[in-house]
Amino acid sequence: KVFIREEPVFICNSDQIKGESAEVKIIHFEINFDWSVIIDHPPSGGVYVIGENIDLIWSSFKGCFQEIAAAGGVVENTKKEILCIFRNGKWDLPKGKVEDQEEIEAAAIREVEEECGIERLKIVKHFQNTYHTYEINGVQILKTTYWYSMKTSFNSPLVPQLEEGITKAEWVKNDDLKKVKANTYKSILELLT
Question: What pTM value is reported for the model?
């Protein structure tokens, strides 16, 4: 699943969409598939691009983009609160680009530390990957974010990384996640759910 302008695009085979309603948009992949139709105007509610060779479809899709890897964390403290950030008008989870030659796990820890002024992070496990696209200066970007479940005993004040557009870094109780879920990206909403 890739989010294009907040709409999900599923790349799968026909067996994976059984039971979907008739309203779901389905497009059959062909060798000379024109991805611009979906990239420029993703259907509201999402679309399934189906074919027998998922690897071929994925490779064709990725060929339309410059790829960027990012890493971040779903961080829980000793009070079972989740670390959230407020960046550019939306709630988010701490993450950032993986630097050249950097291990993905190391990047996840570094980015969470930098964005929130936090220490003593411990990766528990790989959580999941998310994919979304955006455009910068006419260049289409596909960002893969590697998410890790993390824990920390850090209890000092958090320091948001203002130069990255982060105006808040705060611990959010499970019962208070509604405010975050009401103003976040669909990929982040899935992680929090």
Answer: 0.92
